[in-house]
Design goal:
Distance between the termini of chain B: 36 Å
Number of strands of chain B: 11
Helix content of chain B: under 10%
Largest sheet of chain B: 6 strands, mixed
Structural class of chain A: mainly beta
Structural class of chain B: mainly beta
Order of helices and strands of chain A: EEEEEEEEEEE
Radius of gyration of chain A: 13 Å
Number of helices of chain B: 0
Strand content of chain A: over 45%
Shape of chain B: globular
Low-confidence stretches of chain B: none
Number of helices of chain A: 0
Helix content of chain A: under 10%
Order of helices and strands of chain B: EEEEEEEEEEE
Mean pLDDT of chain A: 93
Number of strands of chain A: 11
Distance between the termini of chain A: 37 Å
Oligomer: heterodimer
Shape of chain A: globular
Strand content of chain B: over 45%
Largest interface: A-B, 20 and 23 residues
Chain lengths: ~110, ~110
């Protein structure tokens, strides 16, 4: 089975722009979670989607949003980018219900100039 | 105070040494993850456990839910084990959002 894939792998944007990141989960996995990793804050939970519904949301401003499609692929969007949004954005997929093992993608490295 | 605490933050060892990384948490959980991240690399899930002990090759993870403590052990450490090791738990108090420790940077010298 193919692993979790994320596109693009690297992205450079300027302040004020918006960005959309994509995540394709492992086939058969219905849950996708997104995380932000920065040197200062470490790994932080952004949101989780299951069967196209947001099941959980972290403490991030409304500029961060996401969605999940019927094929379980997920996108996250960040609008009005700020310098502090520079980070590695990781998604992880799992089978879905309950406390399943999560499988991480390689991440998208976002740099905001 | 972070709800998931790891120690030590940094660990340097000589090849062949036995390594222990600790993780403690302050609220109720029903499972805990151990993750590995190589420099510049993605994250790999090593273990998810809710009780007792799990072993995979030279890696052993233990958890005591009542004492709110978990350990990751590496036997016969090797330079390729050099990585950041992170524990994470879906906290009941936060609707099972995965909460991460700050990570332990392990360097194994040949």
């Amino acid at each position: 089975k193919a692993g979790v894939t994320q596109t693009p792998r690297y992205l450079i944007k300027t302040r004020g722009q918006q960005v959309t990141l994509s995540c394709s989960p492992i086939s058969g996995h219905r849950s996708v979670s997104w995380y932000q990793q920065t040197p200062g804050q470490g790994l932080q939970f952004l949101f989780e989607y299951f069967s196209e519904t947001q099941r959980n949301k972290g403490n991030f401003p409304g500029r961060f949003s996401g969605r999940q499609f019927s094929n379980s692929r997920s996108e996250m969007n960040v609008s009005t980018l700020e310098l502090g949004d520079s980070a590695l954005y990781l998604c992880a997929s799992s089978l879905g219900q309950g406390l399943d093992e999560q499988f991480f993608g390689p991440g998208t490295r976002l740099t905001v100039l | 105070k972070n709800e998931v605490e790891q120690s030590p933050q940094n660990l340097t060892a000589q090849e062949g040494e036995f390594i222990t990384i600790n993780c403690s948490y302050s609220v109720g959980i029903s499972a805990l993850h151990w993750l590995q991240q190589h420099p510049g690399g993605g994250i790999v899930s090593l273990f998810m456990l809710s009780s007792g002990k799990k072993k995979h090759g030279r890696l052993i993870a233990t958890i005591n839910i009542q004492e709110k403590h978990s350990s990751l052990h590496i036997t016969a450490s090797h330079p390729r084990d050099s990585a950041v090791y992170i524990c994470a738990a879906p906290l009941e108090a936060s609707n099972y959002k995965l909460t991460f420790g700050k990570g332990t940077l392990l360097t194994v010298n040949p």
